[in-house]
Amino acid sequence: MQNGFRSNRQKKRLMAEINVVPYVDVTLVLLIIFMVTAPIVQQAVTVSLPQTPEVTKKMIPVTEENKPFVITVTEDGMYKTSEQPEIVLSNKDLESLVAEVIARSQLNQEQAIYIQGDRRAPYGKVVHIFVLLKANGVENVSLMTEPELVKP
What we know:
Layout: H1 2-11, H2 21-41, E1 69-73, E2 79-81, H3 94-107, E3 113-117, H4 123-135, E4 141-143
Parallel strand pairs: 1-3, 3-4
Antiparallel strand pairs: 1-2
């Protein structure tokens, strides 16, 4: 009887090899999960950057019809307009300023509306007026910048 017992025991030896199949399955499942969730989790702002080829631009004479309307955000967060630069507008006057710009854009769809902010102006104020105008249907709104001076 011992001979039969030994033969069964010799057949059931322990294997010292690793079964790789479950690890490959788990790895593939994790890979698929990460591939599906990566675009969803991405929180970066997608921006289409403009290209700047050399362009010779025709100078269009400024007339009363195509004269741009400029809103300036001062260093202390107040607003001024190109039509009345001596009048300083505060947050209380913002509603009337937005209404004026909406009326101007409805009268002349081609009139450019520019927002220029002082370098030390609160960024939130510049963005706030920009978003208010866009949300109220003013399509031709742009932010003004100065080109950077190249040091020799």
